[in-house]
Amino acid sequence: xxxxxxxxxxxLVTFAAVWSFADYKSPxxxxxxQAEKDLRQFNxxxxxxxxxxxxxxxxxxxxxxxxxxxxxxxxxxxxxxxxEGRVHDSDWVNGLRRATEKEYPPAMALxxxxxxxxxxxPASDVAGGLELIRRAAAKDDxxxxxxxxxxxxxxxxGVPANLERAEALAHRAVDHGxxxxxxxxxxxxxxxxxGQKAQQYLARAIDxxxxxxxxxxxxxxxxxxxxDFAKAVDLMRRGALLGDRRCMTEFATALEMQLGGQKRDxxxxxxxxxxxxxxxxxNAEAEWALxxxxxxxxxxxxxPTGLAKLQRLAGAGVPGAEMDLGGLLLKGKHVKQDEQAxxxxxxxxxxxxxxxAKLVLEKRGLAExxx
Length: 371
Known about the structure:
Blueprint: H1 2-23, H2 27-48, H3 55-67, H4 72-84, H5 93-101, H6 105-116, H7 126-138, H8 142-154, H9 163-175, H10 181-191, H11 195-208, H12 211-223, H13 229-241, H14 245-257, H15 266-278, H16 282-294, H17 303-315, H18 319-331, H19 339-351, H20 355-363
């Protein structure tokens, strides 16, 4: 009996070892599979509004770029995160430059925008940057087509706007899978007075998950001539679920204000604001500071800290902070009333694109005339 048990034990151990070996993947194979997965995620995010890359994926990209300085793909993506502010190391813009020198079209397109000043960095070579983008577009790179469409739709220093060229380039970009160009086409048709086509492309952009299109449409429902708060909130919720930080902040505010039949949910509101803050949304910081002042969003009151933060953010030109602090001064709640200072802040918020500020000024008959 013991011999039989020993035999089955040896057989089981051998089978387990063979099974484990058959399922085993070397670190190199695993790393290669992870690299391909990361690349797919990056490209989905860039072209079709896929999920934002995780911090882990970005860290792996940085490590790969360091380990493989001749691989243009990792040079490009490491440079991308540098431009986006996700990697706090200005040297990574050199990754874009080095990939550009190797004639990698997406890097040429993105580095060209850096030179043109389209990114947060000041322009250093508009003509050279534009030439790089043109060369990448000639190689049928959809990112370059999209960036060139943006350049021609708005114009650059020394480069006058050309709506026809912008439209043609945006269509080419869409045909090559760059869904971010749908919203560009919507705005181009709006500028040309073709409202029907503008709405068609806006709807397509929203269906694709473009956060800019979602925000613009939500604000239209919120602040337009025929408000529909329920539709506005649905759009904000959708944008928040897609991971857009601005939509998270707007949705939290809508819940707090009980717009469109919504009910307050302090836990969800705080979660949304925290996530938006972690993604760098300064308007979310302003809303959190407002909660510290007046207890909104279910945030514990700490008025001195909240007011100091609102003042600092407003001084930095954050529209939400300018509107929140201006509103407090106008109402005289939680702070000493000062209508003059309040109106000045609301005006600043309106100039910085805050739609609520524009509405407040209109109701007070103080709206600035459009030039």
